Amino acid sequence: MRKLIIAIALTALAGIAGVQAQTYPSRQITIVVPFPPGGSTDVVGRIMAEKMRPLLGQPVIIENVGGAGGSIAVGRVARAAPDGYTIDIGQWDTHVGSIIYPLNYDLQKDFEPIGLISINPQLMVAKKALPADDLKGLVAWMKANPGKITFVNQNVAGQVSGILLQQLTGTQVQFIPYRGAGPAMTDLISGQVDLLVVQGAVALPQVRGGTIKAIVNLSPSRSASMPDIPTSDEGGVPGLYMSGWFGFFAPKS
Predict the structure, then answer these.
(1) Are residues 87 and 183 in the same domain?
(2) Do residues 147 and 230 both lie within one domain?
(3) Is there a single domain that holds both residue 75 and residue 178?
(4) DSSP secondary-structure letter at 230?
(5) For the chain (length 253 residues), average pLDDT per consecutive 10?
(6) pTM score
C-alpha cells in the first residue's frame, strides 16, 4: 500500500506541475540522495527506487550529492524543473536542521512534500577499542579524559546529538566533520574515530557483526528491532533523544 501511495503522490505532483496524469511518468525519474553512498539515506533511497520501478514503469535512478549537511543536493532539487522527474529523499537534517546553514532556497516555499517513508531510531555507536560499553561507562570515561573523545559530525543530527551529550553530561567532545555516514562508518570500524550517531538500520548489522559496539538507543523507549540496546534514560542521561525520519520532496511549481 505504501508503494502505491508513493506512485499516486508522484502522479499527483506531476499534475500540479501541469503534466497530464495519463502521460506521467514517461521517462526516467531521479531520486537525489543528499549524502554519499553507504549511509542510511542512501540505503533507504535505493530500496525505495527498486520498489518504485515496477509501479511506475520507468527507470528510477539514485544520484548521490554530498556536502554541507545535504544542503547542496537539496538546493539542486529546489532549482530543478517542477515536473515530478527530480525528487529528493529528505530527512530531519536536510529539511529541518539545515536551517543552521546559509541557504539559497526556502525549505517551506520551494518544496512540495510527497510523503513520509519511515521514522527510525538513532543509535550512538563506538569503535570496538573504546574503553566503555554503555552510556554510563562512556560518560565516566569522558569525564576522566576531558576533550579526548572524537565525535563524528556527518550531519546536523550528529552535531546536535554531540552538543546535547555535552550539555547534559558536562563533558567535551572533538567534532570530526564527515560528508556522510558511509565514510564515517568505515572510519569507525577501523578505529579512526570514537563515536557516531546514525540510523539504527545502518548501525545494527555492524553491531551484530561485532565490528563496532552500541552505546545507547537515543529514543525514549526501547526499539522492537533491537530490544537489547538500552535507552538514554536507562543509561542515566534522560533527555538525550534523537530520532530520524525519511520522506520524499519535490520542487514546488
Answers:
(1) no
(2) yes
(3) no
(4) P
(5) 50 51 82 89 91 91 89 93 92 71 85 88 96 97 96 86 96 92 94 95 93 96 93 97 89 88
(6) 0.68
